[in-house]
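Renewal narrative, Specific Aim 1. Our central claim is that a sequence can be written position by position from structural information alone. The example that follows is taken directly from our test logs and has not been curated for this report. It begins with the structure tokens describing the chain, in the order in which they were read.
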């Protein structure tokens, strides 16, 4: 069983189902609600466990009731929480998300900056792959350095670009999978192909970019290739990208090639979109296998 270390943000999400996302001020009434653990690294860890792997989460929470709920739910999901740090005098991260009838979302997050200061101790961690987001830059650097030291894949989920984000992240990672917004913010290029080719000048990592229903574009030498998304009726897209990254990291940890890993991850993300409830409702290994056999 492959073991993956996921590193980054952990959140308590309140997800509200609405007919349409609001465009002006006023009252909006929800027809459904779920309160679940969220955040890129946490969602990826849950997805890895549900897909048959082992996941160790490196993250930080505050000293509040939110933290107690988050940690309890992660443990119940089978995630190794031994490297989750509790910080005194800090608020845990929370989000409120509206999901409309098409599965599209509007997300408001609060994350205390103190959660993302300092470096985790990873020296004794032995894993088959590392996956990290960009929310905790020093943590991400430590995770990718650990992957390098172990000689295992180091997958960077570059979904958001922020001022001061270390360029070394791109150099240390073996695989960088951008979100479309993150790629455009980094490069200034609205065109995915142009953005990926621009990043090639800064890193030797394998490069790709997810675009939701438009699938995944990846760089093959100088050429940009495309893996289409699986067509599903989306109920809730929240957490789909996190599930993709977790599934891809697991597939790489198991020794699969990038193309096979992308298809596996795309199938897992597609199945997640069929269900309301964020990343907590990610599919099992058996469900992904049956789905891929069905669609060919």
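The sequence written for that structure reads:
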């Amino acid at each position: 069983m492959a073991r993956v270390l996921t590193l980054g943000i952990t959140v308590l999400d309140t997800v509200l189902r609405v007919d349409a996302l609001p465009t002006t001020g006023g009252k909006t009434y929800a027809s459904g609600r779920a309160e679940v653990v969220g955040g890129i690294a946490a969602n990826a860890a849950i997805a890895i466990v549900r897909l048959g792997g082992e996941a160790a989460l490196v993250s930080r929470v505050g000293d509040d009731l939110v933290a107690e709920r988050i940690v309890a739910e992660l443990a119940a999901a089978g995630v190794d929480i031994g490297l989750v740090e509790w910080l005194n005098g800090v608020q845990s991260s929370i989000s409120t998300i509206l999901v409309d009838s098409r599965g599209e979302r509007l997300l408001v997050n609060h994350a205390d900056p103190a959660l993302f200061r300092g470096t985790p101790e990873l020296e004794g961690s032995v894993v088959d792959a590392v996956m990290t987001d960009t929310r905790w830059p020093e943590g991400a650097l430590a995770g990718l350095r650990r992957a390098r030291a172990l000689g295992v894949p180091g997958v960077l989920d570059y979904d958001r670009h922020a001022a001061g984000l270390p360029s070394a992240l791109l150099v240390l990672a073996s695989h960088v999978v951008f979100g479309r917004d993150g790629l455009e913010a980094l490069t200034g290029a609205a065109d995915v192909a142009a953005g990926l080719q621009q990043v090639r000048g800064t890193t030797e990592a394998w490069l790709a970019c997810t675009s939701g229903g438009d699938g995944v574009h990846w760089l093959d030498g100088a050429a940009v290739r495309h893996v289409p998304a699986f067509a599903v009726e989306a109920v809730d897209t929240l957490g789909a990208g996190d599930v993709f990254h977790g599934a891809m990291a697991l597939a790489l940890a198991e020794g699969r090639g990038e193309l096979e890993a992308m298809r596996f991850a795309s199938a897992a993300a597609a199945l997640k979109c069929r269900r309301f409830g964020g990343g907590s409702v990610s599919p099992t290994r058996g469900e992904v296998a049956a789905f891929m056999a069905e669609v060919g």
